[in-house]
Amino acid sequence: MILFRKKPFIPNQKQSGLNKVLGAFDLTMLGVGAIIGTGIFVLTGVAAANYAGPALIISFIIAGLACTFAALCYSEFASMIPEAGSAYTYSYIAFGEIIAWILGWDLILEYGLASSAVASGWSGYFQGLLSGFGIHLPHAISSAFDPAKGTYFDLPAVLIILFITFILSRGIKESTKFNNWMVFIKLSVVVLFIVVGVWYVEPTNWKPFMPMGFSGVVSGAAVVVFAYFGFDAVSTAAEEVKNPQRDLPIGIISALTICTILYIIVSLILTGLVPFEKLGVKDPVAFALQFIHQDWAAGFISLGAIVGITTVLIVMMFGQTRLFYAISRDGLLPKSLSKVHPKTRVPVISTWVTGAIVACFAGFVPLDKLAELTNIGTLFAFSTVSLGVAVLRKTKPELKRGFKTPWVPVIPALAIIFCVYLMCQLQAFTWKGFLIWLVIGLIIYFSYGYKHSNLYKEHTSITD
After folding, report:
1. Model confidence, pTM
2. Tens digits of residue pLDDT in 99-127
3. What is the pLDDT of residues 40-87, one digit of tens each?
4. Number of domains in the chain
5. What range defines the domain where residue 108 resides?
6. What's the CATH code of the domain at 186?
7. Is the peptide bond before 366 cis (omega within 30 degrees of 0)?
8. Residue 448 domain-assigned?
9. Which of 44, 49, 144, 230 has a Cα-to-Cα distance from 15 of 20 to 30 A?
10. Are 236 and 85 within 8 A, CB to CB?
């Protein structure tokens, strides 16, 4: 069927003018930059207080297992098809155009909302830091549109987005240098929390260990899976990697391993410092240190959280720009989005379009509304990519694979089972929003993308 026309992949074909400057270390730092941030500094408290209690460690292990299985599948695709676009591009080759569009459109929502949600969280921490110096922004511009609370626009969130957009527009090497320094600062702060907090752990705080039962633990896992989204963003950088067949799998797996270990340690210490029911705050890690009267360390943690959330924003927005670039290059979105600046070798138009869209969401839409829609698309993408590995092993066994997912089809099947199970734990509101977004996407595809697709043009030129 013409809707399932597949994009051909020619190994070693000449790619477009993106700058190939990234190595395994840069990719690992990109992944850590995206994964360590909102998960540790915000979601740990919410998940512990509202869902898992001290069993938060099990929530992170479940989410980590789901993402590890998916990451192994991503690594095979990334080493085999080193092109921008991540799951969108992989699906185009494995399943065909309509599935690729659905997945790409889904990821546009996920990256956009995740970036906006992260910017809103950054705004909260930044204003908290300012208040420590006696500086308070006018209430009307301190948060997103909510007339009942007297707020209309989140100015700090918009300003940080515009700053990150400017950094990204300067070039990928400059962006990764900035990211690498901030990741080092962030990891130092996380280690500081571990070193200070471990001496104050009270084992009695771990009782009851699973206060809301196993269902609470699984619901907690469905919430914290957002924390692992970063490794998808690593694969979007494929065309800017010097040796993608080797470096992409190293970057993806290394980042996920480092972050999973840190998440488990931090969640264990956090719930050991503070009774879990008190952790439902916006800054749980800093709050925990204040709770044990280590205010000097709490100040460093707050500053580290701002740095940490900034790196998440960099990588999420980077991933969004490369996704626009890949979809546009295939003709499914206007070609202007895939134009590369001759000097910086960056898709500047897609970068600033991303900045404008994310700024609007973050400036006007409340954080809770942004966050609720994020995880379902991520899990959907992970499931689709995992299925694609098994499919291509059968349909295209001749493709060179720099990394092979072990135990196929067992690992892809486990990834799908874990991800679909976590999707089923999400609220009905999330599913409704997801389906509405997909309907909008299909309208755009059939009204524009279908006839502007490169594959459609090739098909019509051959038939003519």
Report:
1. 0.85
2. 999 999 988 888 888 888 788 878 877 88
3. 887 788 889 989 999 999 999 999 889 899 999 988 988 888 887 788
4. 1
5. 20-455
6. 1.20.1740.10
7. no
8. yes
9. 230
10. yes
